[in-house]
Design brief:
nine-stranded mixed β-sheet; 2 domains; BirA Bifunctional Protein, domain 2; Rossmann fold; 446 residues; binds '5'-O-(N-(L-prolyl)-sulfamoyl)adenosine; five-stranded mixed β-sheet; 14 helices; 23 strands; single chain; alpha+beta
Length: 446
């Protein structure tokens, strides 16, 4: 992409309404624009990151064997009356009446809708296990939408639903989700810690939230610092193996880690004192096992191997896709702007031309642009007639992990400069080497 042809409405001033750094940088970098309280337009740069995050979620869900689909944003109130949640959900639910006077709602979540789809089409244990998911906009009329995309009213969520014959099989689905979420967040450059939590309006006995540690997080968390040493890393997971998933879950749930909702002071006191941590966290996902809560009230049953009709065991599993942009920025920035992890960056590499209009500099930039593109990478070429200082400030603000700077002086010696946004370190090298280095970084990602 050439910046002269792009739409990147960066702001020089700090917007007064933004109280936390991620909200400030998302507005300043021209990623989002508020259209109403808690409702945002996703401008091109923000949209690119949103799509990258969504893509990682899709890949990891499908790696775990989960099946993608798409359900509507608007739902009929009747289904929610069946489960009993139409009244329970309260004012967070946006209720709508259509021209025929029918009660509708903008879905805050999809347990009812998916259970209805399931019961219409599945009748035998032979069709289980099954996990369906989608990534779709949700609406919750939050009383205090704030911090930009962090607590929106309209937000983008991945929500998945497992259907299993019994508790044991459903626990495997729960564990499989935990493992796949750990991988998902790591690919985004995040450490998200599973913490025992409260199930709230979704219900159920077993639930974990995934929290990214950050001072600006809305939840208070208590944990054993040993958990922050754990990594999924490169290990290969057989998602069909009950034991393998359970072992990973055990590894991650053995050290104490809880939100304030479930915090137990006596248990926490057993953690060696030097490892006790209290902090704040951003909830970027939550998984639930709720057994037959919806299948019984909505009559979603299958015939088991003994010929009996039994309610299926279910769970639901959510990732806050749009909230993740905020969480990643909270975890990865400095005073100049965002520092995107390579896994989600909107462009792989910036190209800064220090002397636009200089025949040699222009040609070198074009050549870099062509070689990076030929390798399947997306460079952002700042080809505007601007001062170098302004170009650097924009690149730093929008946070691309790598920048290649091209100027007539370096070109005389056959070199350009490659700069890492994270370390700030620059190195001079031939344009070919710069392309090779950048390409190698991205080739190493999973
Ligand atoms: C699980 C999937 C559920 O709704 N039903 C379907 C279950 N869980 S949840 O915890 O309530 O939401 C899942 C994730 O969505 C994000 N989230 C939000 N993001 C931005 N703004 C909001 N107002 C908001 N509310 C929830 C969180 O990341 C949450 O973990």
């Amino acid at each position: 992409m050439r910046l002269s042809r792009y739409f990147l409405p960066v702001l020089k001033e700090n917007p007064s309404e933004a109280q936390i750094v991620s909200h400030r940088y998302m507005l300043r970098a021209g990623m989002i624009k508020q259209s109403a309280a808690g409702i945002y337009s996703w401008l091109p740069l923000g949209f690119r990151v949103l799509k990258n995050i969504e893509q990682i979620v899709h890949e990891e869900q499908q790696r775990a064997g989960h099946v993608p689909m798409l359900m509507p944003t608007l739902q009929s109130a009747d289904l929610w009356r069946e489960s009993g949640r139409y009244d329970d959900y309260g004012e967070e639910m946006l209720r709508i009446t259509d021209r025929h006077g029918r009660d509708m709602l903008y879905g805050p979540t999809n347990e009812e809708l998916i259970t209805d789809i399931f019961r219409s089409h599945v009748g035998s244990y032979k069709d289980l296990p099954l996990t369906l998911y989608h990534i779709q906009w949700k609406f919750r009329d939050e009383i205090r939408p704030r911090f930009g995309v962090m607590r929106g009213r309209e937000f983008y969520m991945k929500d998945g639903y497992n259907f299993d014959i019994d508790r044991d099989a459903a626990i495997h689905a729960y564990n499989r989700h935990m493992v796949s979420y750990l991988r998902t967040y790591e690919r985004m450059g995040l450490q998200a810690i599973p913490m025992r939590a409260d199930s709230g309006p979704i219900g159920g006995e077993d639930t974990h939230e995934f929290l990214v540690l950050a001072d600006t997080g809305e939840s208070e968390v208590f944990y054993d610092s040993a958990i922050t040493d754990l990594r999924m890393g490169e290990r290969k997971v057989n998602y069909d193996s009950w034991d393998e998933c359970a072992a990973i879950v055990k590894e991650w749930t053995t050290p104490y880690a809880r939100t304030d909702e479930t915090h137990d002071g006596d248990l926490f006191a057993k953690v060696p004192q030097e490892r006790q941590r209290t902090s704040r966290g951003i909830e970027v996902g939550q998984i639930f096992y709720f057994g037959t809560k919806y299948s019984e009230t909505m009559d979603a049953r299958v015939v088991n191997d003994k010929g009996e009709r039994v309610p299926v065991h279910m769970g639901s599993h959510g990732i806050g896709v749009s909230r993740l942009l905020g969480a990643i920025i909270e975890a990865s920035h400095d005073d100049k702007g965002i520092i995107w992890p390579e896994g989600v960056t909107p462009f792989h590499c910036g190209i800064v031309n220090l002397k636009q209009g200089d025949a040699e500099a222009d040609a070198a930039c074009e050549a870099l642009y062509a070689s990076l593109s030929a390798l399947g990478l997306d460079p952002l070429y700042d080809d505007r007639n601007e001062r170098a200082g302004g170009k650097f400030a924009t690149m730093d603000l929008i946070g691309l992990p790598w920048r290649i700077t091209v100027g007539p002086r370096g070109l005389k010696n056959g070199v350009v400069e490659l700069t890492s946004r994270r370390t700030g370190e620059s190195e001079e090298m031939t344009p070919e080497m710069a392309v090779e280095k950048v390409a190698a970084v991205y080739a190493a990602l999973r």
